[in-house]
Design brief:
Structural class: mainly alpha
Number of helices: 18
Mean pLDDT: 84
Helix content: over 70%
CATH superfamily of the largest domain: MFS general substrate transporter like domains
Low-confidence stretches: 1-11
Number of domains: 3
Number of strands: 0
CATH architecture of the largest domain: Up-down Bundle
Radius of gyration: 21 Å
Length: 477
């Protein structure tokens, strides 16, 4: 038996199979797309001081980062309709084109306001790229290979975590922030060419009569409200913005359920279903992750007297470990998957408890171990949950189920960052805060993270309950 791309489905699930034959070019395209999005995500924080020195805009310092995230979330949410309109290949090329134009515009931006506008387009294109990459996994790769290719993607994210800031740092060092955007342009062009020449066109284009503008605007406004929480120190205003964001996103998703041209699969965020409980797991572990690391470089510098670069790489221990965990369990099958997923949930909780105990007073090695445990736990559980959920998708919705995963993660990053900022602000954390205040804020953040990690573990058990119901206990992988 062969897939629609002529790829034998009875071959063994080996790493070689991902990087040979017809799958090789798909694996290259997927990881190039992920790399483009990841580098664009990490590079901006490194070059922002140089940008401000050149074109000004200190009062809008955080906006190029925030608006990119808004665009990315809208892009990931729009993936289903975009694919329905353009088809698989054309939709993927369209995403790459938006990203390419956004980078070119950013490279020529004469002021901070124009840069922010182009960053919206970068985010939209990047969100569409990464979400369609996950959708391609559901469409192209047979079930026995999905876990391995997801692990390869995790590795690409890990590489970007290490080299993304360094990539931007090179251009910042020479005062050429525009060069950072220019350097991405050839890769974006290569991505578009590879997609056009190698991704088979699908026959599902042109189905949508009305593009979901209202739902996407609600999403954009909701996430913009989340981003605005970082622009105020008023706790009441922050809470109001977060509540407004939740209401707008919830209303958009409610409209989506009743729409003929859905952005999300059936049962999105319905907890008593396999797909819904999977997405809750994605949201909760992302909450746990971002609350754990958002202020890590701050307390590592201020409380443990580490240099900025050392603090950054210690904080990145979680991301490195995430990749390691994903690679370790990539070939696990059968009941070993249960150990990977549930065991990963316990490791996430153990890491959160460790950070609560050691983040403020150390020793440093136990902070690193705690971050590592949380990262390994995410790595061992995350990709298997995605792969199992794709298996449970209705016929024809595998791609939509897979692509929506990134929307949940990106939403988790946005809302998790806002939650962490609210907690830190409520604890009195501000610029130039005394060590005692930083300690109180970090302690409160990490105690909250234990609750989030416990909810993450609970969501895993709920997921397995409904996965078992939908598959009648079968697990052929």
């Amino acid at each position: 038996m062969t897939s629609e791309n002529g790829i034998p489905e009875t071959d063994p699930a080996t790493w070689k199979r991902i990087f040979s034959g017809e799958l090789l070019i798909y694996s290259i395209i997927l990881n190039l797309g992920i790399l483009l999005f990841a580098i664009d995500t990490f590079v901006i924080t490194t070059i922002m001081p140089t940008i401000i020195k050149d074109i000004g805009g200190t009062e809008l310092y955080s906006w190029p980062v925030m608006i990119f995230m808004v665009g990315a979330i809208v892009g990931t949410a729009a993936t289903g309709p975009v694919r329905e309109i353009f088809g698989r290949r054309n939709g993927y090329v369209f995403a790459g084109f938006l990203f390419l134009v956004g980078n070119l515009g950013a490279a020529f931006a004469p002021n901070i306001e124009i840069l922010i506008a182009w960053r919206v387009l970068q985010g939209l294109g990047g969100g569409l790229i990464i979400s369609q990459a996950y959708g391609l996994i559901g469409d192209i790769y047979p079930p026995e290979l999905r876990m391995r290719v997801l692990s390869v993607i995790s590795t690409t994210w890990g590489v970007a975590t290490v080299f993304g800031p360094a990539f931007g740092g090179i251009f910042a060092e020479f005062g050429s922030w525009r060069g950072a955007f220019w350097a991405i342009v050839p890769l974006a062009i290569l991505f578009c060419i590879l997609v056009w020449r190698n991704v088979a066109p699908s026959t599902d284009g042109g189905k949508i009569d009305n593009f979901p503008i209202t739902r996407l605007l609600l999403f954009a406004l909701g996430i913009l409200c989340v981003g605005m929480t970082s622009q105020t120190k008023s706790t009441d205003f922050q809470v109001g913005l977060i509540l407004a964001a939740i209401l707008m996103v919830a209303y958009a998703m409610d409209r989506d359920v009743r729409s003929a041209n859905r952005m999300f699969p059936k049962n999105t965020l319905v907890p008593n279903t396999t797909i819904g409980s999977c997405y809750w797991f994605m949201l909760l572990f992302t909450f746990t992750f971002i609350v754990a690391v958002l202020y890590a470089t701050l307390y590592l510098q201020e409380l443990h007297h580490q240099t900025p670069i050392v603090a950054a790489y210690i904080s990145a221990t979680l991301s490195f470990s995430w990749t390691i965990g994903a690679l370790i369990v990539a070939s696990w099958k059968g009941r070993a998957i249960i150990i990977a997923v549930i065991g990963g949930g316990f490791l996430i909780l153990l890491g959160a408890i460790g950070l609560s105990l050691f983040a403020v007073e150390g020793p440093l090695i136990l902070i690193i171990v705690s971050l590592g445990l949380m990262g390994v736990g995410i790595g061992t559980s995350n990709n298997h949950v995605i792969a199992l959920t794709i298996e449970c998708a209705e016929e024809g919705e595998q791609g939509l189920v897979a692509s929506s995963v990134q929307t949940m993660r990106t939403m988790g990053l946005a809302f998790g960052s806002a939650l962490a900022g609210l907690i830190a602000n409520n604890a009195g954390l501000s610029e130039g805060a005394a060590p005692e205040t930083i300690s109180q804020a970090v302690d409160l953040l990490n105690r909250t993270d234990i609750v989030l990690a416990a909810l993450t573990l609970l969501s895993i058990f709920i997921f397995y309950r409904y996965y078992w119901r939908d598959t009648k206990g079968a697990n052929a992988r």
